Amino acid sequence: MSNLEPFSLEDGTLLIKLARENIEYFLKHNRKIAVADAIKKKFSDKYGAFVTLNIYNMSGNPLRGCIGYIEPTYPLYDVVHRVSISSAIEDPRFPSVTLQEMDNIVIELSILTPPELIKIDSPDDYINHIVIGRDGLIAEKGWRRGLLLPQVPVDHGRNWDVDTFLSHTCMKAGLHADAWKDVTTKIYAFKAILFEEKEPRGEVVRKYITPQ
To answer: Do domains 2-113+192-207 and 116-190 have the same CATH topology?
Structure first.
């Protein structure tokens, strides 16, 4: 994760502040906020990133929305500006978030390294290349592509092993659960630095995952 080390807790706080203010302004006025020049300058490098909205203190899976860009196509400030709104109103799994709901939502930001194809001789080799809690995965076959972030197999009481993580990533791509055993299915890995609010509009912390 060396290329992610420059991101400090202050950086994460600024980016999550941008995401929250952008969402709440959009829900009030139906347009995005203007991004300050200082933020544009500070976060001008290109990264993939995801904004995740979680319901605060909810038992089970608290997910309320999650959208992002996998590839480092846009400046980081632009990605956060775009996907913060998308996570609130465009995640097809959920209805649009309301302004009132934002009082009970915590925001999580995942900044990604570029995905790298896992090169294997046999699908049995994946267990030697994938570390739960360190790696996020992308499954790709034909035009189907699905991603799960590194925190997914360990968050909210999950305790997935590598096979389970591969299966869920394939299903996210709309593939059969065992599609990762097909040599024509490509599996990519990436890493992430994670920041999250401890409570709605509260302190932002660096989120650490202990690799298994």
So the answer is: no
Q: Give the contacts of 22 (CB within 8 A, at least 6 positions apart).
A: 32, 33, 80, 81, 84, 85
pTM reported for the whole predicted model: 0.87
Q: What does the pLDDT average to over 110-116?
A: 94
H-helix or E-strand spanning residue 167 = helix 162-172
Rg (CA), the chain: 17
pLDDT surpassing 80 at residue 86:
yes
Q: Is the pLDDT of residue 212 over 60?
A: no
Q: Which residue is associated with the tokens 């952008």? A: 22
With tokens 């995640």, the residue in question is: 91
Residue for token digits 């869920």?
A: 168
**Domain 116-190 classification at class level:** alpha beta
Is pLDDT of 144 > 70? yes
The domain made up of 2-113+192-207 has a fold known as Glycoprotein, Type 4 Pilin (3.30.700)
Query: Look-up: residue for tokens 């001008």?
Result: 44
The pLDDT of residue 5 is: 67
Partners of 119 in the β-ladder: none
Please report the DSSP string for 94-159 in residue order: SPPPPTGGGGGEEEEEEEEPPPEE---SSGGGGGGT--TTT-EEEEEETTEEEEE-TTTTTGGG--
Strand order of the sheet with strand 186-190?
A: 116-117, 186-190, 136-141, 144-148
